[in-house]
Design a protein that fits this description.
Layout lengths: L1 H35 L2 H32 L3 H34 L10 H24 L2 H25 L8 H33 L3 H27 L5
Helix pairs in contact: 1-2, 1-3, 1-4, 2-3, 3-6, 4-5, 4-6, 5-6
InterPro entries: PhoU, PhoU-like_sf, PhoU_dom
Protein name: Phosphate-specific transport system accessory protein PhoU
Pfam families: PhoU (PF01895)
């Protein structure tokens, strides 16, 4: 009986990884549609969202079954509860890529991003793909240190989003109001996509340690200071032959 329980728990975790990989592919197609005015890529995103939705429903059903029939406790309970929130974050990431694909399709055959803004969005797209790749590794390993990296990577996207917002609000903005609205919304979609990845990282930290990220970081700093003190103490002992 418990073997079946472990199999169901492992399948639930595996489906989260599959969902993450599907969203990474959506992000790749959405960015190609946006930056290259590629209508086929935009349609691919709008089609693949149905597969992600099926995975979302499947994961939610698995979580409810595990809670109702298996009564998980301790770490397993955290794993299921955190998993239900992770599913919702992944679903929102998928929806944000759909928004980007729809903007690209609406402006086709023109590119929705003005030429001078393309480098900024190319970098945002690359950063989001890198974050999603890291997120995959986090969901495989449940490594809290790797999960913390998501928040550090998110800072670069936040900076780009802020810079783009400043550019669109300057008097010297050389493009139309429609362009400004598109650019602002598109930047926001990428920024929110990254934020949801950070949220998933926070949930993985809680799952792995039972602590919120700020608690884990504070405890880590304390452990690092203690390890440094012990190392220095050992060096002194070796230097003076264990006598003081």
């Amino acid at each position: 009986m418990r073997d079946d329980y472990r199999e169901h728990l492992a399948e639930f975790a595996h489906n989260l990884i599959v969902m993450c990989d599907s969203i990474k592919e959506m992000a790749s197609h959405a960015s190609r549609a946006l930056l290259s005015a590629d209508l086929t890529s935009a349609e691919d995103v709008l089609t693949s969202v149905e597969d992600v939705e099926e995975l979302r429903v499947k994961c939610e059903q698995q979580a409810f079954q595990l809670l109702a029939l298996e009564s998980p406790v301790a770490r397993d309970l955290r794993r299921v509860i955190s998993g239900t929130y992770i599913v919702e974050d992944l679903s929102r990431m998928s929806a944000l890529m759909v928004h980007i694909a729809k903007v690209a399709r609406r402006r086709h055959p023109d590119c929705a991003v003005p030429e001078s803004m393309v480098p900024y969005f190319s970098e945002m797209a690359k950063q989001c793909l890198d974050i999603t790749a890291t997120l995959h590794d986090v969901l495989v390993s449940y490594d809290p240190e790797l999960a913390l990296q998501l928040a550090r990577d998110d800072d670069a996207i936040d900076d780009l989003h802020h810079h783009i917002f400043v550019l669109t609000t300057q008097r010297e903005w050389p493009y139309t109001t429609t362009n400004a609205v598109d650019v602002t919304l598109l930047s926001r979609y990428y920024e929110r996509y990254s934020d949801h990845a950070v949220q998933i990282g926070a949930r993985v930290i809680y799952l792995a340690t039972g602590m919120r990220p700020e608690e884990y970081v504070g405890g880590k700093d304390e452990r690092d200071r203690e390890a440094t003190f012990i190392r220095h103490f050992d060096e002194i002992q070796q230097r003076y032959g264990g006598t003081f």
